[in-house]
Amino acid sequence: MENVQGKRQLQKVATREHIIETAMLVYLAQGFSTPTNIIAQEAGVAHGTIFVHFPTRENLLFHALERFADNIGEKLHGLSVSNSDMEVLIRAHIEIVGENEAFYKNLIREISSLPLDTRSLLVFLNSIASHHFSIALQRGIEDGKLKKLSVHMAYNTWLGLIHYYLQNSEFFSPNGESVIERYKDELVNSYIDLLKK
Amino acid sequence: MENVQGKRQLQKVATREHIIETAMLVYLAQGFSTPTNIIAQEAGVAHGTIFVHFPTRENLLFHALERFADNIGEKLHGLSVSNSDMEVLIRAHIEIVGENEAFYKNLIREISSLPLDTRSLLVFLNSIASHHFSIALQRGIEDGKLKKLSVHMAYNTWLGLIHYYLQNSEFFSPNGESVIERYKDELVNSYIDLLKK
DNA sequence: TAACTCAATGAGTATATACTCATTATAAAT
DNA sequence: ATTTATAATGAGTATATACTCATTGAGTTA
């Protein structure tokens, strides 16, 4: 009976899981370069236990980030359901970003210090959003509502704007309030203004 | 005779100067978090010599960044001379960014790990550019060439776009070529398209 | 010339942090 | 019941790096 797992194996899986989940929480609060000893402490395990389950710090980071990316990726896929109108789409998009603001903020700030394999996770997320964006822009152009613009540049402008606010969030929201929550209407409205004929 | 300086004092000033200039070069090539021992090595002085001239690593960093900011700030002031046309202005602006691409790239990537006093340097640079931008936008709106837009949002959109390309430069220019050189026309043209009625 | 001052040196200290491994306690197998 | 396998431990190791300080040797002053 191959599937029967003893207490040992179950415990091992549970510990690994617990470490990943703790790491995700700690990364949100303290950034992705939080040392392994802090994560061990928060998880209530010995420092060495981390390395029983993950060969390196980067490996743990990768698994935690992958899980974030999976969650958000699923939400982004859902954008397609009914949104071919640009304004509706980017409003839904910024809503998702807002729900994961801590993740995006840390990712954007630290991405250049992250290992290469983790960077591809952001590329993956962007490519999902990009696809829906492309369809909505084409539609808007065909309907004569939006300017004829390069999809590529229009999308990068939108991402650039959001990233700029996330990266400089203490400047825009000095008290630690959510930047996206505070500026989403202004961001969506002024971006749509730019796209309109 | 107060101004007479002996060999000693001259030497000290020269060494300090040499360390700052070396640091500027090294920072451009290796990023602003290059360790002090590397800078000492490149400057051909002992590691301890760094701390004869600067109390902390951050202090050296501050002096080097301040010098970058002064140089660029002067160029940015020059934008005012003849540019009240938006397209001319942002083309001149991106030209200056391109001339200092390595500096901007490192600054944008590492700014969240830099000490607070150095961040104000970027705020300072942006406020100079922002002033010229504001004038050009008002002019364009009054002339009926540009949409009525919030100066603030229009400027942040432009900066966001440039920062996005700088931050993701290996993605846009995988071979290490200058991103700004390669994309400046496309960036200026598509941004101006967005502003036009 | 002798005494003194100080810029520069570089070996040494302090700290942070990733990762190792002998040991332990408990589950599993005999 | 005894032996074996292994999850977890935590003290220990290795490395990076900011910063210190006693020492040196050349410049300055008396």
Secondary structure elements and pairings:
Two copies of one chain form a homodimer.
Chain A: H1 7-30, H2 36-43, H3 47-53, H4 57-77, H5 86-99, H6 101-110, H7 116-142, H8 151-167, H9 169-172, H10 179-195
Helix pairs in contact in A: 1-2, 1-4, 2-3, 4-7, 5-7, 5-10, 8-10
Chain B binds a DNA duplex (30 and 30 nucleotides) through residues 6-8, 11-12, 15, 35-37, 45-53, 55-57.
Keywords:
10 helices, 76% helix, mainly alpha, 197 residues, 2 domains, homodimer, Tetracycline Repressor, domain 2, DNA-binding, Arc Repressor Mutant, subunit A
**Count of helical regions of chain A:** 10
Q: Give the termini separation of chain A.
A: 67 Å
Largest interface by Cβ-Cβ < 8 Å: A-B, 30 and 30 residues
State the domain count of chain A.
2
- The CATH class of the largest domain in chain A turns out to be Mainly Alpha
CATH superfamily of the largest domain in chain A: Tetracycline Repressor, domain 2
Sheet with most strands of chain A: none
The quaternary state of the protein chains shown equals: homodimer
Q: Strand portion of chain A, in percent?
A: under 5%
Low-confidence stretches of chain A: none
